C-alpha cells in the first residue's frame, strides 16, 4: 500500500527542503518506497480536517490504510522499522541509532528552533538584537558537543542510520546562518548526507512543488 | 542484567521529580525492572568520563552490559520494546504510541523548555518581563491543541503507553506555574499519571536521593 504524506503547499523556505516533510521523503527514498503527497495550504493547517490527522496543525502526516501518524521522528522510525537501510540489525547498534534520532529532535533541534522563533516572532522587538547572540550561544554549545562526539567519523555511530538522517536535517535548518561553518566536521557531515542519492531524489521532489507553485503564481 | 542509570546528585527541583531520570525510573517501574543509580555532580556533568557516555553532558544515561544509551526518550523506548506494559502489541496502535513519544519530546517539551530557559538564563534582562508572556502564549497554544485531542479520554490513544508517560512528565515541568490550570482535562490527565503505582515508586526513589543529600548537608 502506497502511503500518503502531507507537505506545505507553499514552501516557506522557497524550496530549500528545510520543512519536516523532507525527513520523511528522504527516509522513504532510502527505503526505496514510493509515496504520494497531499499539499496543505497554510490556512488549512489549523482547520478540522487536517487537525483530525495532526492535532498540532503541522506537517507532515503519514497515512497508510487505516494508520494515521504524525511527528516526523515517529514516521521516519515507522519506515525504518519496516525497511532495510535505516536501522542496524544488531540490537545494541539499533538502540544507539534510535538514541541519535531522539538526540536530533529533542536535544539539538529545540535550540535551533529557538533561533527561528526569535527571527520570526521577535524581530520587531527592541531587544531582539541583544537576545539573538544569547540564543546562538546555546546552539554553539550543542554543536561543539555534537562535533566533539562525531570527530572524524563518517556518521554518528557506524553505518548511516535514521539518526544521521534526522540530525543532518536538523543541522540543515541552520543553512540561512553562518553558525555551522565554525564546525568543519559538521559541515562535511551535512554535505555527506546531502550527497546521498536518496537525499537528492527527496530534495528534487520537494523542490518541484515549490517550482510548480512559483510558475503557477507567475502564469 | 540490572541496568545502571545516572541522575543528578543534587536535584535542581528539590525532589519534585522533574528531571529526565524520572521518566526512565517510571518506565522501569512500569516494566517491573530493578535498576541501579549512579549520581553525578553538576561539576562532573561536562567532564570526560560522563561525556563519554553522554556527549551533551546531561542525565540520564543507561548502561546495560556493553550497551550505553542516552536521551530519556530513547531509553524509555528501549525499555518499552523489551517489556510488556508500555507499548501496545497491535502494530498500528504501537506506531501511534510512538508518535506520542515524539510529540511529547519534540513538539510539547521544547516550548516548555523555552520558558525555563527564559527564567533561568534571561531573568536579569530588562526585557524578561515583556518576553515571558510571549513564550507562555506558545505553551498555551500547544496545550490547547493537546487538550482538544485528549478530550475526555483517559489516555492519548487507548491504553496507557510510553507516549503518555513522556507526555505526563513533560506537562509536570509546568508545575511551578499556573499555566496548566487553564486546561482542566490536562490537569486530570497528569493526576492520572501520578496516581499510578509505578509513578509513585519512581517518585519516591528520586525523592529519597534529595532527602538523603539534604540531611547530609544539614548533618
Topology:
Two copies of one chain form a homodimer.
Chain A: E1 4-8, H1 21-30, E2 36-40, H2 42-45, H3 48-53, E3 61-64, E4 67-70, H4 72-82, H5 91-121, H6 128-150, H7 162-172, H8 184-194, H9 197-218
Parallel strand pairs in A: 1-2
Antiparallel strand pairs in A: 1-3, 3-4
Structural class of chain A: alpha+beta
- Specify the number of helices of chain A: 9
Mean pLDDT of chain A: 96
What would CATH call the class of the largest domain in chain A? Mainly Alpha
CATH A-level architecture of the largest domain in chain A: Up-down Bundle
Describe the fold and architecture:
The structure is a homodimer of 219-residue chains. Chain A has 219 residues and is of the alpha+beta class. Chain A has two domains: 4-85 and 198-218, Glutaredoxin (3-Layer(aba) Sandwich); 91-196, Glutathione S-transferase Yfyf (Class Pi), Chain A, domain 2 (Up-down Bundle). Chain A is 59% helix and 8% strand. Chain A contains nine helices and four strands. Chain A has a four-stranded mixed beta sheet. In chain A, helix 1 links the parallel strand 1 (4-8) and strand 2 (36-40). Chain A is globular and about 40 Å long. The model of chain A has no long low-confidence stretch (mean pLDDT 96). Chains A and B meet through strand 4, helix 4, helix 5 and helix 6 of A and strand 4, helix 4, helix 5 and helix 6 of B.
